[in-house]
Amino acid sequence: MDIRQLEIFLSVMDASSVTGAAMRMNLSPGAVSLQLQNLAASLHAELFVRAGKHLKPTPAAHRLAEMARNLVMQSEAIEHEFDAHTSDDTRPFHFATGATTLIYRLGQPLRQLRKRFPKAKLHITVAATEEMITGLQQRRFDLALITLPVEPSALRIIPLYEEELLVLRPSAKSVRGWHVGTIHPQELRGVPFVLHSKRSNMRTLIDGMFQELGFEPQITLEADDNETIKSLVAAGLAHGVLPEMALRRQPRFFQVFRVAGNRLVRKQALAMPRSDYTRPLTESIARYLTEVLKA
After folding, report:
1. CB under 8 Å, gap of 24 or more: what pairs does 146-150 form?
2. Cα 255 to the chain's mean position, in Å?
């Protein structure tokens, strides 16, 4: 017994004839009769008796129909749950990103995303790249916007754009306008720094820069988010290194520099679990964000 046999059986129940059921199911009458015979044999029960040109259900058929309708409905619900087209997908969609990217890059794209996929139940999680990678591997997130590099894993990576990381130096006066100066490596020796924590991809990039410069920074504080680092630099407590898009709000009490001879960038990418059965909505949202963020 299988779901297809039950669907054919229910069609015969509703049509009261093999011919009528065959037309509904787009099958031949012979195929419908064969499936009924196989179903009756598997259940060891007589399901129909002939009454003129029609088939009369037996009491066993009525009992089976009551249970079969529930099974067929559940089967259809399961197929819809796991095979829904993008426009019909109403399951929760879990998207993860860093706080800076969410604040400075994703406002308009997410608004447009809501218009494009009005039925999608979009859930946003703000997390560090390392937490996002774990969430993708555990299938808690459908899609994430991460900072590269990441260790090889069972993920599909879609590169997006590069973003420059710049040095912040405290300023006693309010700074307006956007200007990126040049600072020489020796000016950074011995000055205090507030940097991201060791467990972050951002810190890995920054440590690599200082290794190329040939000295270790004097780290007095560590923080997990850009806004905290900006506040500490603006208070005059330390220098910092942050992504360019987090620095344009004005006024500010710090100056912005790139290190002479060393252009430091972080690479942003979309990541999703690698699967032979990727959710159509995930593919559609990934294509849209790739188009918008690359532009």
Report:
1. 146/98, 146/201, 146/268, 146/269, 146/270, 146/271, 147/98, 147/201, 147/202, 147/205, 147/266, 147/267, 147/268, 147/269, 148/201, 148/266, 148/267, 148/268, 148/269, 149/201, 149/204, 149/267, 150/201, 150/271
2. 36
Distance CA 248, CA 108 (A): 17
**Helix axis angle, 3-15 relative to 59-83, nearest 10°?**
120
| Positions of the chain with pLDDT lower than 50, given as ranges | none
Determine the 3-state secondary structure of 275 from DSSP: coil
Report field, pTM of the whole predicted structure over 0.85: no
- Alpha carbon distances (Å) from 177 to 14, 235, 248, 256: 75, 19, 8, 11
Output the CA angle 107-255-186, nearest 5 degrees: 125
Alpha-carbon distances, residue 243 vs 92, 102, 179, 268 (angstroms): 31, 13, 14, 11
> How many residues would you count in the chain?
295
- The CA-based dihedral angle spanning residues 173, 176, 182, 186, taken in that order and rounded to the nearest 10 degrees: 20
Euclidean distance between CA atoms 216 and 229, whole angstroms = 19
According to the model, what pLDDT value does residue 152 have? 67
Please count the other Cβ atoms lying within 10 Å of the Cβ belonging to residue 219: 16
How far apart, in whole angstroms, are the C-alpha atoms of residue 152 and residue 135? 15
The two tokens of residue 95 are 């998207």
Tokens coding 98: 């860093």
Contact (Cβ atoms closer than 8 angstroms) between residue 99 and residue 225: yes
CB 176 within 8 A of CB 263: no
Judge whether 5 and 71 are in contact, CB under 8 Å.
no
